Amino acid sequence: MESSPTRGLVESGLLVALAVILFLASHFLPVAGVAIALVCPAPLVVLGLRHSLGRALLGAAVATVIVVIMTGILGGLFFGLGFGATGIALGYFGRRSLGVVEILLYALLVSLGAKLLLMVLATKMTGINPFSVDPEEVRRMTDAALAMFGNVSPETLGIIREQMEGVLQMLPLLFPALLVMASGVDTFLSYAVSGAVLRRLRRETLPPLPPLPPFEAWSFPKSLFWALLVSAVLTFLGSSSGTASVALKIGVNLRILVSMLFFLQGSAVAMAFLRSKGVGGWRWILFGLLLLVPFLSQIALILGIIDVWFDIRSRIGIGR
Q1: What was the pLDDT predicted at 257?
Q2: What is the 3-state secondary structure (H, E, C) of the chain?
Q3: Reported confidence tier of residue 69, pLDDT bands at 50, 70, 90
């Protein structure tokens, strides 16, 4: 009969092998790989839940080395700092019997730190820095995109070129906010999918996520408005110091994150209104338009700010 330490080593080895197999499948399968990628952290979550932090980290390190052998250094870094760090963090904090919010928050911080480290290492290896813009690269990408427009007047092409170059030049400034949002989505999906898989296997699992209220009832605290005001002040102060100003970078990224939440609240108001009028699935077409059309997105954002202060849904009798 195997001893407990031996069983632990065998189980750890199997989990490491499963994590590597899932990652390789997600890496090489073009369509199914997207779905498989959501399950990749699950074996590492089990590793963190059932074993000590030291053994979990060792297992993740071994899996990373195997991935490096199979796909190269960049693939190994993507596995270790992308999937590995998030999975181990979720398992470790879940093992400490913390609440859902605490587990998600701590795992988000680990995921964000790991992705920042991944960006730094990838920059060192490839020479491509996502936090800076090469004017020549911007021009080349713009020319390649404009080539797809075909027979368009030179005046229109000039306007499109100006807008595209402005967006490309702004991306590095917005990169921190995009990284935070990506880490948040990644952590939440890893938690939800891993928890569902573990419950299916009847193993140690993460605390179930509390049911989300219907989208039409979503709302955020009034304190969010003050974060928006702080972001506006920082952006104004930073603008006078140039694009390299730390205040400008913090202000712009904070405004992006807060504006996204106000957009969601404004969209929830619009969806609640349509539901009160008996509009069914067509509501989601409206949400798609709010998301894709900049003018409508701004209206939803303003509506969200107003709703924070005046609770539009209660005032017009559609409730929350």
Answers
A1: 87
A2: CCCHHHHHHHHHHHHHHHHHHHHHHHHHCCCHHHHHHHHCHHHHHHHHHHCCHHHHHHHHHHHHHHHHHHHCHHHHHHHHHHHHHHHHHHHHHHHCCCCHHHHHHHHHHHHHHHHHHHHHHHHHHHCCCCCCCCHHHHHHHHHHHHCCCCCCCHHHHHHHHHHHHHHHHHHHHHHHHHHHHHHHHHHHHHHHHHHHHHHHCCCCCCCCCCCCCCHHHCCCCCHHHHHHHHHHHHHHHHHCCCCCCHHHHHHHHHHHHHHHHHHHHHHHHHHHHHHHCCCCCHHHHHHHHHHHCHHHHHHHHHHHHHHHHHCHHHHCCCCC
A3: very high
Max CA distance (Å), the chain: 80
Segment 224-277, tens digit of pLDDT: 889 889 888 888 887 776 655 777 878 888 888 899 899 999 998 988 888 887
Residues with Cβ within 8 Å of 56's Cβ and at least 6 positions away in sequence, in order, are 44, 47, 48, 88, 91, 92
Q: What pLDDT score does 53 carry?
A: 86
**Rounded-to-integer distance, Cα 210 and Cα 99, Å:** 11
Residues 6+ apart with CB under 8 A from 122: 74, 77, 128
Q: How far is CA 6 from CA 2, 13, 24, 88, 228, in A?
A: 6, 11, 27, 21, 55
pLDDT tens digits along 290-309: 888 888 889 999 999 999 88
Q: What is the value of pTM for the model shown? A: 0.72
